[in-house]
Design goal:
Strand content: 25-35%
Distance between the termini: 82 Å
CATH architecture of the largest domain: 3-Layer(aba) Sandwich
CATH class of the largest domain: Alpha Beta
CATH topology of the largest domain: Rossmann fold
Number of strands: 21
Radius of gyration: 26 Å
Number of helices: 12
Number of domains: 3
Shape: globular
CATH superfamily of the largest domain: P-loop containing nucleotide triphosphate hydrolases
Strand order of the largest sheet: 6-5-7-8-4-9-10-11-12
Helix content: 25-40%
């Protein structure tokens, strides 16, 4: 009898080990290693069938630029770089109940109405549950097919028979292959199911959406290689405390990355928000200390967001640095720069930073906004309501230039702001058509005299 080969896989990142480990050396998680059977790949299998082709010269390969599939939802088309590319694999992740299935059901309905046969494969809900959600979002087209199945072989067989124009797998963690003995959701099953579905998509030209569960850290569960295999990775951002959701593009082989689409959750589904700046600033308090507006670039779109700071004296000896929406280490660094360069003693103060609306900001262009809001709260002085700030702050307190300043200033002027504090070396001079007052500073030492 042939001996069964087994190895241990980390269920969080896919790290392999010959023996069980309490802590994963790759991702640092505890008690994630599970023993799984390892089988040799069968000869003449699916991959050989798909890629049984001979090498050919690149000058004879035909590659016509086809039109992208328009989903009928402008925000999704923006995130995908203009629409869905044929044969592309798109991975979308997010917290449970955030709206992944609802949004994709709306996308499938729009494509089905246009005449495209759409296949929605669910391994988590029954057909009647999908029908109830379909009634709520208005999905009732005859071209929208629903399949409740978790067997990978059966799913591939139905795709070959129906040959739909687009496929959604909800979710990839529920799909399993009979060729493996490990449980659904394990690293081996996710890798096998994803690989065969993606190869099917490349061979047939059928675009496929893979819905993935996320870990408590917010990353997509399963091996990290899953994000490298697909063409596009989308993340849902937002929480139950806010009615709107943000779909962020962190990888895209067919368009710009870090693009966002903004939606508002309603009873009838997710409604796209065409003007996110107005949404994020709709509840901005007037005359409040520690509040400032910064123009942030999200992909190719400028978005105005409000940064709020609360700087209060600490009485327990260990000051806290708590942030929501920005990097905590970056805030600690900027607080040290402000204390060193401007002489504001923040070392014995608690600092709380919040980006209103639940937006996550990663670019350095918001540094000047964080510094301005901290100064406003520490000095208890309000910032002019019609002023925006933008710039990167270095370790010596210099204000460095940022990219695409023209688009940022245009968006701020369109939203009614008439004054902008920006770096001394900036491309913001090329805007003669706006009446925006531009105040240029070279160091944060000059910031207080222009800010208040």
């Amino acid at each position: 009898m042939k001996k069964i080969k087994t190895t241990f896989f980390c269920q969080n990142c896919g790290q392999q080990s010959a023996k069980w480990l309490g802590k994963c050396p790759s991702c640092g998680e505890w008690n994630q290693f599970v023993e799984e059977e390892v089988r040799d790949a069968p000869s003449g299998g699916f991959l050989e069938e798909v890629f049984n082709e001979k090498p050919m010269s690149i000058d004879i390969i035909k590659a016509d630029e086809k039109d992208r599939l328009r989903t009928g939802i402008a925000e999704i088309d923006r995130v995908l770089g203009g629409g869905i590319v044929g044969g592309s694999a798109i991975l979308i992740g997010g917290d449970p109940g955030i709206g992944k299935s609802t949004l994709l059901l709306q996308v499938m309905q729009n494509l089905a109405v246009s005449g495209l046969v759409s296949l929605y494969v669910s391994g988590e809900e029954s057909a009647s549950q999908i029908k109830l959600r379909g009634k709520r979002v208005g999905a009732s087209s005859k071209n929208l097919m629903v399949l409740v199945e978790v067997s990978l072989e059966n799913i591939l067989r139905h795709i070959k028979e129906i040959h739909p124009g687009i496929v959604v797998i909800d979710s990839i963690q529920t799909v399993y292959s009979s060729a493996l003995t490990s449980a659904p959701g394990s690293v081996s099953q996710i890798r096998e199911a994803s690989g065969r579905l993606i190869m099917m998509s490349k061979k047939t030209g059928i675009p496929i959406f893979l819905i993935g569960h996320v870990t408590k850290e917010g990353s997509i569960a399963g091996p990290k290689i899953l994000e490298h295999m697909v063409d596009t990775v989308l993340y849902f951002e937002g929480d139950s405390g806010h009615t709107f959701r943000i779909v962020r593009n962190v990888k895209n082989r067919y368009g710009p990355t870090n693009e966002i689409g903004v939606f508002e959750m309603r009873e009838s589904g997710l409604i796209e928000v065409s003007n996110p700046s107005a949404l994020f600033l709709s509840e901005r308090p007037k005359g409040a200390v520690g509040s400032v507006v910064v123009p942030s670039m999200e992909g190719t779109r400028p978005v105005l967001v409000e940064i709020q700071s609360l700087v209060s004296e600490n009485t327990f000896g260990i000051p806290r640095r708590t942030t929501i929406g920005v990097d905590r280490n970056r805030v600690s660094l900027l607080a040290a720069v402000v204390e060193k360069v401007c002489g504001l003693h923040l070392g014995n103060h608690d600092i709380f930073i919040n980006v209103a609306g639940g937006v996550k900001l990663n670019e350095p262009a918001v540094d000047l906004g964080i510094v301005s809001s901290m100064m406003s709260s520490f000095l208890d002085r309000t910032i002019d309501f019609s002023t925006v700030v933008c710039g990167e702050v270095g370790l010596t307190g210099e204000v460095r230039s940022v990219g695409r300043m023209n688009e940022r200033i245009k968006e701020a002027f369109r939203m009614g702001f008439n004054r902008c504090i920006l770096p001394g070396i900036s491309s913001g001079d090329m805007l003669p058509e706006t009446e925006m007052c531009r105040v240029k500073i070279a160091s944060i030492r000059e910031l207080p005299e222009h800010l208040f």
